[in-house]
Structures are given as C-alpha cells and as structure tokens.
Amino acid sequence: MAIAAPIETPTEFARFTVADATAIPLYTVLKLSGDNTAIASSGADVFAGIAWEEKTADDGITEIVVALNGVWDLTTAATTITLGGIVSLSGAGLIKQATEAEMVTGAAFGKALEAASSGEVIRTRVGLLV
User: Fold this and answer.
1) Which band of pLDDT confidence, cut at 50, 70 and 90, is reported for residue 129?
2) What does the alpha-carbon distance between residue 114 and residue 104 come to, in Å, rounded to a whole number?
3) Residue 130: is its pLDDT beyond 80?
4) Which of 9, 68, 74, 127 has the most CB atoms lying inside 10 A of its own CB?
C-alpha cells in the first residue's frame, strides 16, 4: 500500500467512523465505505480523505481525523497522468487520471501538479472541489 506524504499542511479536516479492529497507518489514503465510514483505499473508490492520525487495531477507537485538502506526494498506478489532470483513486493508496464518469459521480478529488508515468510519485493538490 502506498502512503501519501504531506507537502503543504491541510487546512480542512473531518472525523470519520472506522472499525475498531482495523489498523490505519498515518497518511493512509482512505475511501468511503459506508455512511461517514472510511477504510484504506483498495481500488477505484470514492475518496474520503487522508488519515491525519494513526489508528492501532483493537485500541477501542472508532473515529479518526482525516485531511480533506492540502498538497501531497501521491503514487500513480500503472497509468499516465497529464500535468493539471484531475485524479481519482486507483488502488491501495494509488491515483490515476480521472475519467469523465468519475468526475460526474464525485470520485475525482485532486489535481496533478506534475505529469507522471506508471508508478511515479507526484505532487497532487487534494480537495473535494479542486
């Protein structure tokens, strides 16, 4: 699983419900998995945010704070992303260039600040309404 790296500190945060039995490393890219519930991304999912705190499995905690914006280094999937392209999730912490359908359904969540080819780490402006 690829982990995001913060470049510019986020200014918008939210609390999401998480499973007590689940461990979530700091800066994990999260997807929505239910009503106000988040888990680690695993595919072409709807972006929830990036874990702003670490969650240990079976620690009794069922909510964590996630970052909703900022500039992050994110890893690309096996795909090309154009400079300025809108991005969406593509795997465990991975991003790809968003399709038109993903923009319509709300799955797009950021803008590539660098061009990329397969497996590169690129600077990405994250925000639900980028």
Assistant:
1) low
2) 23
3) no
4) 74
Nearest by Cα to 110 from 91, 95, 93: 95
What's the 3-state SS for the chain? Answer: CCECEEEECCCCEEEEECCCCCCECCCEEEEEEECCEEEECCECCCEEEEECCCECCCCCCCEEEEECCEEEEEEECCCCECCCCEEEEEECCEEEECCHHHHHHCCEEEEECCCECCCCEEEEEECCCC
Confidence grade of residue 104 (pLDDT, cut at 50, 70, 90) = confident
Residue in the block written with tokens 């913060």 = 6
Task: Please count the other Cβ atoms lying within 10 Å of the Cβ belonging to residue 85.
Answer: 20
d(CA 8, CA 16): 22
Task: Record the pTM.
Answer: 0.94
- Determine the pLDDT at residue 86: 96
pLDDT 10s digits, 79-97:
999 999 999 999 899 999 9
